[in-house]
Design goal:
The chain is of the alpha/beta class and about 160 residues long. The protein has one domain (about 1-160): TIM Barrel (Alpha-Beta Barrel). The protein is about 40% helix and about 10% strand. Strands 1-2-3-4 form a four-stranded mixed sheet. Helix 3 runs parallel beside helix 4. The radius of gyration is 16 Å and the shape is globular.
């Protein structure tokens, strides 16, 4: 991480660091929010300023999402702490809401939710669909400066590539 960060700084780039399994893990290893906080603290000492708490297997639930963002964002106000959430078709909105209502303003999305992790226990678990993010923030009247027409064109192109 140090070497990558040095290269980023040298070339005027900003590194985004993903804290994988930031909401739990499939291996049965101990998990606690303090572990996530410890790594953000340690890595922020390298002048890394952007982190994405990552739920690569879809185990996050509103309670832990709320606790992590409501604790970490105020504790590290100079850092940008975002969400990379995997979800099933029926849990996406509660996950976005839990993060957003607790200060998260940076979200990863994938058109139509393409992608995912083969370790996820539910075959319907995939990346957070960009269109779900747009829907949620549209209902919240958050201006994302996204052209819906251009997004629809991109979505159509994705279906031609992936379906």
């Amino acid at each position: 991480m140090e070497e990558i960060q040095e290269l980023c700084l040298k070339h005027d780039k900003e590194m985004v660091t993903y804290i994988s399994m930031g909401f739990g893990n499939p291996y049965g290893d101990p998990f606690h929010e303090d572990i996530v906080a410890k790594w953000i603290e340690k890595l922020s000492q390298l002048e890394i300023k952007i982190f994405a708490l990552s739920d690569t297997i879809g185990v996050s639930e509103p309670g832990i999402i709320s606790r992590l963002f409501s604790t970490l964002i105020p504790e590290y106000p100079k850092l940008e702490i975002g969400a990379h959430l995997h979800t099933t078709p029926d849990t996406w909105e509660e996950k976005i809401a839990s993060a957003h209502q607790n200060g998260c303003v940076r979200f990863d999305g994938a058109i139509l939710g393409f992608g995912g992790c083969p370790m996820a226990a539910d075959e319907l678990t995939g990346n957070m669909a960009t269109e779900n993010l747009l829907s949620y923030f549209g209902k919240q009247e958050v201006d994302l400066s996204v052209s819906i027409a251009e997004f629809e064109n991109s979505k159509l192109a994705a279906t031609q590539v992936f379906l």
